[in-house]
Amino acid sequence: MNTFDRRKAGKQAEQKAEAYLEQQGLKLLVQNYSCFSGEIDLIMRDKEDIVFVEVRSKSRTDYGLACESINKQKQKKIIRAATHFLQKKGCLYKVSSRFDVITIELIAGKWQMEWIKNAFWVEN
């Protein structure tokens, strides 16, 4: 799969994840938030919480599952980008937030989606 196809597949996965989360009652605030320290696929509101969502899709699992690709380094980038977002909006330490992951994988010929709430957290 070339870069264009991967980008297109990633965009489609984000759209599916957004639609699913909206069906669950979340509201989209920002899509593809980007700053010097990283990028966040979806930023949503779940009642009073701000939810930073990483979307991962894989059509093959022979190199591991989609959720396994979110290593500590990727988590740190997401956390730094989330902190930047909250600081920019003036709500750092004023709102509750969490980090969720949506995985979309082709397993046994069928696309399956999994929503992992509180997939990782800020360590002190």
Spatial separation of the terminal alpha carbons: 39 Å
Globally, the shape reads globular
Number of β-strand runs: 5
Order of helices and strands: HEEEHEE
Write the CATH fold name: Trna Endonuclease, Chain: A, domain 1
Q: Compute the number of structural domains.
A: 1
Low-confidence stretches at least 5 residues in length (pLDDT < 50)? Answer: none
CATH class term: Alpha Beta
Structural class: alpha+beta
Biggest β-sheet strands, sense, barrel: 5 strands, mixed
Count of alpha and pi helical runs: 2
Average of per-residue pLDDT values = 85
CATH architecture: 3-Layer(aba) Sandwich
Q: From the alpha-carbon coordinates, what is the Rg to the nearest angstrom?
A: 14 Å
Provide the β-strand percentage band. 35-45%
What percentage of residues falls in helices of 4 or more residues? 25-40%
Strand order of the largest sheet: 1-2-3-4-5
Molecular structure report:
This protein is α+β, with helices and mostly antiparallel strands and 124 residues long. The protein has a single domain (3-120), classed as Trna Endonuclease, Chain: A, domain 1. Helices cover 31% and strands 40% of the residues. It has two helices and five strands, in the order αβββαββ. A five-stranded mixed beta sheet has the order 1-2-3-4-5. α2 links the parallel β3 and β4. The chain starts with a helix and ends with a strand. The mean pLDDT is 85.
Secondary structure layout:
Layout: H1 3-23, E1 27-35, E2 38-46, E3 49-58, H2 72-88, E4 97-107, E5 110-120
Parallel strand pairs: 3-4
Antiparallel strand pairs: 1-2, 2-3, 4-5
